[in-house]
Specification:
The protein is α/β, with parallel strands linked by helices. It has three domains: 267 residues, Rossmann fold (3-Layer(aba) Sandwich), CATH 3.40.50; 124 residues, no CATH class; 48 residues, no CATH class. The chain is 46% helix and 14% strand. The strands form five sheets. Strands 4-3-9-10 form a four-stranded parallel β-sheet, sandwiched between helices. The chain has a four-stranded antiparallel β-sheet with strand order 5-6-7-8. A hairpin with a 2-residue loop joins strand 5 and strand 6. Helix 4 packs across helix 7, helix 12 runs antiparallel to helix 13 and helix 15 runs antiparallel to helix 16.
Length: 495
């Protein structure tokens, strides 16, 4: 099978060919640390987390670099508002970012550089651009000359003359061209500053990523990623700077995830629909958020809504209820390590479950189709379990065959789930972590009612026992009595 990825630069799917056989370098633009991360950041983080997981599961050696922008206009403005110095402010939000990613099951990148730790690398690249005539100095500020770089606009598909006509930028008389952008900003009172050839100042946003990506992955590397909103101007400018400085192609493949809205509106604090990851985790379990954010193709727009999350919860419950049934038949399973992805996906093009999973994931990381296969597999497993209770499975040999089959089916399901960062909890733990059931009852409240029903049954108070069962049933909770006691599940279509 052949991996294909949509390349924003060519605006089409391309067969992926790494620069070095078996090895891949990936740079993804991280967050600017002036505020808490929102669910839009979560989508990007999870998309690229899954890309890295999948590539490693397919046997590639991946070097994943994701930066922090810790010096920027927004950080300086927030510092003035809060009274904190920029270093303390940035560190606080970096720590918050790590907490969010840990909760969402997002792996740390292999290298996580900060702009302030690479000032010398940034200055070196700017000096090369000035020497080559791609940049010019006015007072103690350095600008990149877009007219000097022939390929400017190719990534975003824009012509320079059209950019000028549609530009909403203040006229800066220091610039040679309206679209020229800052590489080095001259120092202003009270702002962070470093010494340079052109005087004290600080780097522009775009040059930071160019310098850090090239330092860790080389002048030409495989994949550059980020949100769709970064294509212009950030990634366009990154590409121009790096190619102008190094004289070679920058990233061979550009991958961008689509926009995320909230209840069909663009997320905005002024609209009151700005949802941080921390707030979202108070309402939903981490796996619910992951499944939702992977439920559509990564390039498609995605709308965050209560109804959509309700469907996601129902789907997760269906899967974990099946895993719970499997435990009752074939026993518990050893929990997979959450921090390690080893090459476990077969590269054969067989028509088995893993083969089909590889096929859809090879098609531009189609997680929506991958999830569809997982839900199909859950239905298949339930059919096998149900058939095992029929006379056809009466013989010992048949029961052993069915048990062996179920163990393999579960293993395949969990392997593919791990690529998506899902199904890494034991069923018992999952159900404990569901904050509220669809009925609004907590797990503890449900189990207390079951205990009351058990007492009524022991006392042969059938009227009370039936009344409790009916009350739970009305709230969407199904009780199942068995030799080991009473278990419960949510009433979810198809479960």
């Amino acid at each position: 099978m052949t991996l294909k990825l949509y390349n924003s630069a060519s605006r089409k799917k391309e067969i992926f060919k790494p620069i070095k056989d078996g090895e891949i370098g990936i740079y993804v633009c991280g967050v600017t640390v002036y505020d808490l991360c929102h669910i839009g950041h979560a989508r990007s983080a999870i998309v690229f987390d899954v890309l890295v997981r999948y590539l490693r599961a397919r046997g590639f050696k991946v070097t994943y670099v994701r930066n922090f922008t810790d010096v920027d206009d927004k950080i300086i403005e927030r510092s003035k508002d809060t009274g904190e110095d920029t270093i303390t402010l940035a560190e606080r939000y970096i720590n918050a970012f790590y907490q969010d990613m840990l909760a969402l099951g997002v792996f740390n990148a292999d290298v996580e550089p900060r702009a302030t730790e690479h000032i010398d690398d940034i200055i070196d690249m700017i000096e090369i651009l000035v020497e080559k005539g791609f940049a010019y100095v006015v007072d103690n500020t350095v600008y990149f000359s877009v007219e000097k770089f022939d390929g400017y606009g190719q990534l975003s598909g824009r012509r320079l003359e059209d950019m000028i006509a549609g530009a909403r930028i203040a006229v800066d008389e220091k610039k040679s061209h309206p679209m020229d952008f800052v590489l080095w900003k001259g120092a202003k009172p009270g702002e962070p500053k470093w010494k340079s050839t052109w005087g004290e100042g600080r780097p522009g946003w775009h040059i930071e990523c160019s310098a850090m990506s090239c330092k860790y992955l080389g002048a030409n590397f495989d994949i550059h990623g980020g949100g769709r909103d970064l294509i212009f101007p950030h990634h366009e400018n990154e590409r121009a700077q790096a190619m102008a400085a190094n004289g070679v192609n920058f990233a061979n493949y550009w991958i961008h995830n689509g926009f995320l809205t909230v209840e069909s509106e663009k997320m905005s604090k002024s609209l009151g629909n700005f949802l941080t990851i921390q707030d979202a985790l108070k309402l939903y379990q981490p796996q619910e958020l992951r499944l939702f954010l992977l439920s559509k193709h990564y390039r498609s727009p995605l709308d965050f809504s209560r109804s959509a999350l309700s469907e996601v919860r129902s789907g997760l419950i269906r899967i974990y209820r099946t895993l719970q049934r499997l435990e009752e038949i074939v026993g518990p399973y050893k929990t997979r390590s959450k921090g390690i992805i080893t090459p476990f996906l077969s590269k054969s093009d067989g028509d088995d479950f893993k083969g089909r999973f590889i096929e859809v994931m090879d098609d531009d990381l189609n997680t929506a189709a991958g999830l569809g296969l997982i839900f199909d597999k859950v239905r298949d497993i339930n059919r096998i379990i149900d058939s095992s209770a029929t006379p056809i499975a009466d013989s010992e040999a048949q029961r052993k065959d069915i048990k062996s089959q179920l163990i393999k089916e579960r293993s395949d399901l969990l392997d593919c789930g791990k690529v998506l960062g899902l199904l890494e909890e034991e069923p018992t733990q999952f159900f404990k972590e569901i904050i509220k059931t669809p009925s609004g009852m907590s797990t503890e409240e449900i189990e207390e009612m079951i205990r009351e029903r058990d007492k009524a049954r022991k006392a042969k108070d059938w009227v009370k026992a039936d009344a409790i069962r009916e009350e739970l049933s009305r709230k969407g909770i199904i009780l199942e009595d068995g030799p080991k006691g009473t278990s419960w599940r949510f009433s979810v279509e198809g479960s």
